Amino acid sequence: MKQATMTCRPLLISLLLLAAGPGLAGSADPGSQPVREDELTVLLSMPGDPQRGQESYRLCRGCHKADGSGKAEAEYPQLAGQHARVLLKQMADVRAGRRDSPKMNPFIEHGEVSSQELADIAAFLENLPVPSAIGLGDGRQLELGKHLYLRDCASCHGPNGEGDGQRFYPRVAGQHYPYLYRETLESRDRGRRNANPEMVRVLKHYVDSDIAAVSDYMARLRPAKP
Amino acid sequence: MGLRHYPSMLGVTLLAVLSLPAVLTSEAGSTAGPDIARGQALAGGECAGCHGADGNSEIPTFPKLAGQHVVYLLKELNDYNQAHRASDIMQPMAASLSEQDKLDIAHFYARQKPAPGTVAKPELLALGKQVYLEGNSKNGVPSCDGCHDEDGAGSGKFPRVAGQHPEYLLEELQRYASGKRSHGTRVMRTVAERLTPEEAEAVSQYMASLE
Questions:
Q1: Which of chain A's ends, N or C, has fewer CB atoms near its CB within 10 Å?
Q2: What number of C-beta contacts closer than 8 Å exist between A and B?
Q3: What predicted TM-score, i.e. pTM, was given to this entire model?
Q4: Greater pLDDT, B135 or B28
Q5: For B122-209, which CATH superfamily applies?
Q6: How confident is the model at residue A225 (pLDDT cuts 50, 70, 90)?
Q7: Is residue A148 part of a domain?
Q8: What average pLDDT does the structure give for chain A?
Q9: Which domain holds residue A174?
Q10: Do B186 and A106 touch (CB under 8 A)?
Q11: What is the least distance, in Å, from the CA of B135 to any CA of chain A?
């Protein structure tokens, strides 16, 4: 939440850039992936109210559950404790058609939830405790998983899986294994269209069992409380 | 003593109004506060024959209105009025009501105590409970408790479904799925499209069993 309000100034500048013409905008993101300045710009500039967010989140509870824990078998991601900026980017991507989510789409369309409601929901979710009961893998390849993670993933997702909201790197610690596995696989195979290009390059050399190993490792990570 | 004295309150109210869905803001017309006694008199004359004197209709295809939420009732009455929700019976009824009538009647019904529902097929309750509380992730059916609450009480624009007639509930689910009830939000149409006919029947029984 605090982060979101602090970004007001660069956002204003990017809004100006946007107004000046599409060619100028889009290169301001510090991360390696260009983020289009559209609804996301608006979302990040809106202070979110967790209390209102709890009420608006009603629409989402049928899949992501009241405590944000999602559902491992269903590949409904765990959202509690995720960085608000990450949540907002993913929501904006889905609404703008940059990330496919046929199951969720009708529930998060523009006619169903306003931008303000999404900002509120993100503020609410960010402050929820990460649930401890999480879908895990078989635990047989954790050494390999650790090796791969620290070599290829930790630079962005953090040594303890904590992610980095400023740069839109998702927190992966405590996420359900089946979801992590599917998203990593989809990112490698270009099914997830908004995947980070640098991450896709790293993943090119991964076989499915590497992905299983690193996903199992990520799901079990628990960052120290900030 | 004008609004001028409360600029911050006005700001808050404006914000609140802006963040409400369009459905609500269109309500903010020229009506005064609700008059429950007037609502009761109006409902007693025009609506009681079908919906029951206290909103607990006895006829399975006429919905119970007792304990239903004001926001939802007003939205549905306006939708009938503007022919957004098709019903040969309800459209002329709703068209005859003024904004103030609707407000008074809605507040009257919202305050009535809902009578328990009647379960016709108890053998379906187990499946119905599973659908209601777990959804069906294979087909992307969210659990119903997410929006309608575990006890079926709902809130605001999410209708109360607890104790409603199962025949009416099933009919509405079928109407959403077939696109006949297509007004308003897309969420319920999506939910109903994803339910199998067996699940729809079972969950209707389960909702009727809730209190």
A1: C
A2: 53
A3: 0.87
A4: B135
A5: Cytochrome c-like domain (1.10.760.10)
A6: low
A7: yes
A8: 86
A9: 142-220
A10: yes
A11: 7
Q: Is A59 on the interface with B (CB under 8 A)?
A: yes
Q: In chain B, what residues touch A104 (CB-CB under 8 Å)?
A: 140
What residues does B136 pair with on adjacent strands? B141
Residues whose CB falls within 8 Å of the CB of residue B2, separated by 6 or more in sequence, listed in order: none
Give the model confidence (pLDDT) of A15-48 as tens digits.
Answer: 433 433 333 333 333 344 444 458 999 999 999 9
Spatial neighbors of A60 by CB under 8 A, at least 6 apart, are A79, A107, A108, A121, B146
The number of distinct structural domains making up chain A is 1
Contacts of B189 in chain A (CB under 8 A): 106
Q: Is B21 on the interface with A (CB under 8 A)?
A: yes
Q: How far is CA A44 from the centre of its chain?
A: 14
Residue A149 lies in a domain: yes
CATH 1.10.760.10 positions along chain B are 36-110, 122-209
Give the pLDDT score at B146: 96
Q: How does pLDDT run across B160-175, given as a tens digit for each residue?
A: 999 999 999 999 999 9
Helix (H, G, I), strand (E, B) or coil at B136: strand
Chain A contact for B187, CB < 8 A? yes
pLDDT tens digits for range A68-85: 999 998 889 999 999 999
> A73: which chain B residues are within 8 Å (Cβ-Cβ)?
137
Q: How far apart are CA A15 and CA A21, in angstroms?
A: 10
Q: Which residues on A lie below 8 Å from B147 (Cβ)?
A: 58-59, 61-62
Write out chain B residues lying below 8 Å of A75, CB-based: 137
Rg (CA), chain B: 18
Q: What pLDDT, on a 0 to 100 scale, did the predictor assign at position B31?
A: 65
Contacts of B197 (CB under 8 A, 6+ apart): none
Among candidates B21, B137, B187 on the partner chain, residue whose Cβ is nearest the Cβ of A107: B187
Supply B172's token pair: 């509405």
Whose CA is closest to B50, among B92, B90, B94, B102? Answer: B90
What CATH class has B36-110? mainly alpha
